[in-house]
């Protein structure tokens, strides 16, 4: 990456032209960035930097030659700069923009230039470079190193701060290495600063641009001095002060400001434990914001019915940090319910919100002095929509609090309306921005110019009448000003008071003393009017900037209204239900005196999958607090989807949303852990199994009785013996020590006997039927354990060659036969399979607990046990008559395959079915 001053120019600095010498000086001061140097209508880069910019932006390099030699140049058109700047930022370059800071026409000699902003991926503020409805954060991780011993003692190891420079949102927290990793995952910064002393391993998980800053920036005294410009630094821990101060110093540097960023109204200190904690693995596993394959819908996409960028960012923040305070959750549910139950109110509010611009970013541009007249009109139009929102929710008690915060800022709206025309030009220096009647002196100057133009407009008719020249014309050019044009054939009629101004091929151009006087009057008045308009607009912009706190408060209220009405719209259109938040201990530690705080969902659905699968099968979930549900069943039957939909119901509920279910009774959990799916971390030197074990480690160390844990196929990446042992031990730990409510999907059917040994372990399975060798997945969860994983059948569905599938069937059959022989022979390498009652077999799918039954019992046959399980699983209330007949036919077929069993339980030849003989 080429940055800084070109070496080829540094070598011959004394020989450079004044402009190139100026470029080198700027490039040396901003040696960590590519300098784009304003020259006329282009931003130029030179020498090595030009080569880099041309390559990334796909521009043509030009060889330039002057008295000092030959050099390479590359230019970006100023009018189309955002397109090329985005390419440089996407390539993780810093770009220092050096603008002309004086009028070239007024400059005596070299035009003065200075860097007006430094663009980086995390600090861009230009609308064209920002994603609407999303935050762009730059974050900082720092230690308290350098502080006094008293200051550092007992404080968390790291401070983590983040700021959105475009909106002014700034927050800071502190914690250990694990907390840093979790926070960076939730923040998702585009750029990261790391202070000295930060262990690189702590920030390895952050996939973003890394920025180095002078270590002095992270000195406690220097950081404190910066932070004091925004907040009382004593309110923060030592590490928090360093992180926030260093970060804000960097933000000021990138915006070219000598003082504080006025629109950063406050620095919020927060505790991650005051929200539902979702680490990087959970965010990824639940696909809240990113789909696994990099395309397709996410949970956020599914529920995002917002009408404004403000609401979109707020909804994203709610989903990223769901609540853990029961009263706050229910208050949000009340507001969503109010919108859901009042269609007219909801639609009136959403229509008004459609006119709302991004108040936060508007306020930022206004405070930075970079807003144009159109920005102020956008602010005006947004303020004009607020009364309609207030009126719509006036009688809704659940929305009284947010209504009180909807200050329409009438004084500000009226000021802008009085000052700025409805459709202002893009350039505020070209005039035509300020309304007539706003300023008396401006009106007088405009009147002078207008009267002069009117006099000139009538001049042509008067001069034709006075001179008798019928084709005489009055015109204007920027170079020569106003003129009277006479063709060569009429020159003999030209009066004596005409003075020649310009000679053309077929005509002459003249002016008169009065025309010259009027011209000077008009041009002088227009120039004065333009200058006066700019001054008036700049003053207006400063007056609006003084109200940034009020604008920010209104932006917060509008964002809440939009997010709440969006959740209500999603609930109504997708048939979501309001969850009942169960009593009991909430995740903040409060106790409401009721222990019935488990997860209870009736006919729950996966909010994303049901959008693309019209035949999605709903399922119930009844998980009392601390339950460990062992979920067995075939691949592709829906185990992972089921686990995710339960977790998503909890996340949605605590974010304030209704949930996709017929009824929902949900607790407040403190964390959601996921270990779903498998992938290598080749770059990090970790196999799939090692990564799985690391994720399992995090779960087992941090899960509590208030947590929800999803584990999928733990232990499958190693030998069967080791994997089964790890899985069993993990289940026992979650049950006995962590006490976390857990969904544990597994193909280790041997684990299902844990339900007999532990009171809160239960078996659940996904039902499937087999007919003529073809498996049909019913996608319904049932009590008990599965009778088969149908792995070979799934391989067949995947297209594995027939010969491989047939051989696999033979091997499975042989393995089962060998297992039966060893069991009958008392081989202690295979656990004997004690018998249960028929009802127990139908419920749990296989024998593990009862004493051996008498020889010849049909209950001893695994095929019969499976048949009984599926017969028990058949839900007649949810089965059509045709489906019931097909199922009955299938059961008969399977019974025949198991052997023609007589009433005594024997085959025709006297052998016990599936028992290997007597």
UniProtKB/TrEMBL annotation:
Residues 707-723 form the DNA mismatch repair proteins mutS family domain. The keyword Nucleotide-binding applies. ATP binds at residues 633-640. Signal peptide: none annotated. One of its GO terms (biological process) is mismatch repair. This protein is involved in the repair of mismatches in DNA. It is possible that it carries out the mismatch recognition step. This protein has a weak ATPase activity. NCBIfam families: mutS1 (TIGR01070), PRK05399.1 (NF003810). This is DNA mismatch repair protein MutS.
